[in-house]
Amino acid sequence: MINRKIVMIPGPTPVTRSIQEAAGRETWAFGDPGFVKDYKGIIEDLKSLWRCDGQVFVVAGSGTLAMEMAIANNTKPGDNVLVISHGFFGDRFSDIARRKGLNVDLMQSEWGAIVPVAEIGKKLEEKQYAAVTATHVDTSTAVMAPIHEIGMAVKQKSPGAIYIVDGVAATAGIDEDMEKSGIDVLLTGSQKAFGVPPGLAMVFANSRSLARRAEAGETIPEYYVDYEKWLPVMDDPLKYFATPSVNLVWALKEALEIIKHEGLDNRYARHAKNGAAVAAALETLGFTILAEKPWRAPTLTTALYMDGVDDAKFRSVIQEEGVIVAGALGKYAGKAFRLGHMGNTDTHDLVCAIAAIERTLHRLNACVKLGSGVGALMERLV
Ligand code: PMP
C-alpha cells in the first residue's frame, strides 16, 4: 500500500514538517513588528551566508522573475551580453535578454557537456560585455557549470561586466561564495535547495550591481523588478512597495535555521555525497547519466532510459509506487527522466526513490536485480 507521495522532481523539493508549519502559521499583517523583524533577519542572514556586500532582494515570484530582475537592473537596450548555456534554462536567459533589446552572444554546449572555459575566455577578449550570464546547474541536463572558473575569466578579461549566476537549482546545495567566485548577481528561487514551497524569488546583488542600477538613473522600464523600488523595503521591511509573501518568508526563515544548524559546508558536502550515490545507483541499474562525469550536478540527475523502457509508462508506474520524478526536456523528452536530490531531501527519500525505480523497472519487465540499486546507493551513503 502506498499512502505518501514522495516528490523527487527537481523542484519543488520535499518540504520538511517544520517548514510546512512555518508556512501554515496564521498570516500576520506585513507591518507587524514581529514579521518585520523576521523579514529583516532573513535578509541579513542571506547577505552574510553568501557574502553579498550589496543587498538581497526577497520578493514574491519564481526563479524566472529573479532572472528578469537580474537582467532588468544590470543592462540597458543595446548592451552586449554573453550568455553561457548548458541547456534549456541557460537558453531562457537569451530569450529574456533579446526581448530587452540586448545584443546577445549565446555560447551553447552539447547537452551533457560544458562550454570550455578557455573558449569563454577567448570570447570575452573579442568585445566588452555589459553582463555575462551562467547557469550554475542547468535543470534540463543536470550539468553543473564551473562558475568559479568562469567568474575568474570574466574578472580578468572583461572586468567591467556584471557576472550573473542563475543558482535556481544550486543555491544552498552547492558553494556559491559571491566574493570568492566574483559573482555580482546571484539569483535563485525558494523551491529547490532551500526546501521551501515555490513562490519566493531571491536576488543577491553586490555593490557593483547596485552601482550599475544607480547609473541607469531614476527609472528603468521595468517596475516590479526594479531594485530601486525594493531597496527601501529590504533596508526596512516596515516600508511598503508590494505585498510580501508573509508565510513564505516565515518558511524561508525556518529553512535558514535548518541551513545554519547544518552548516553550509556540511550541506554542500552532503549534496556532493548524495549526488554521487544516486548516480552510482542509477548506473548500476543500467541507466546512462546525461551529464559528463566532471560536470554532474550534486542537486539532480538526468538519466537516459535503457532500451525498451517507455518514458510515459515509467513515470506513471513510479507514481503508483509513490514517487514522483520529472520528465526530460528538449530533445531528451521521452528519452530520459530527471530525479531531484537537493535541499532537505534525506537518506529516507533517496532510498525510497531508488527502491521505487527498481520496483517500476520490475513491473515493466526490464532486466533488474532487485536491491542492486539500493545497495550501490547505500554503500556510498554509509
Ligand atoms: N533556472 C533554473 C536553473 C531552473 O531550474 C528553473 C526552474 N526549473 C528556472 C530558472 C526557472 O524558475 P521558475 O520555474 O521558478 O520560474
Description:
With 382 residues, the protein is an alpha/beta fold. It folds into 2 domains: 6-12 and 263-381, Aspartate Aminotransferase, domain 1; 17-261, 3-Layer(aba) Sandwich (Aspartate Aminotransferase, domain 2), CATH 3.40.640. The chain has 14 helices and 15 strands. It has helices at residues 17-23, 33-49, 63-74, 88-99, 117-126, 147-157, 178-181, 207-215, 227-235, 246-262, 264-284, 311-320, 347-363, 372-381, and strands spanning 6-7, 55-60, 80-85, 103-108, 131-135, 137-138, 143-144, 162-166, 185-189, 200-205, 288-289, 300-304, 323-324, 326-327, 336-340. A 7-stranded mixed beta sheet has the order 2-10-9-8-5-3-4, with helices on both faces. A 4-stranded antiparallel beta sheet has the order 11-12-15-14, with helices on one face. Strands 1-13 form a two-stranded parallel sheet. 4'-deoxy-4'-aminopyridoxal-5'-phosphate is lined by residues 11, 62-64, 89, 135, 138-139, 166, 168-169, 189.
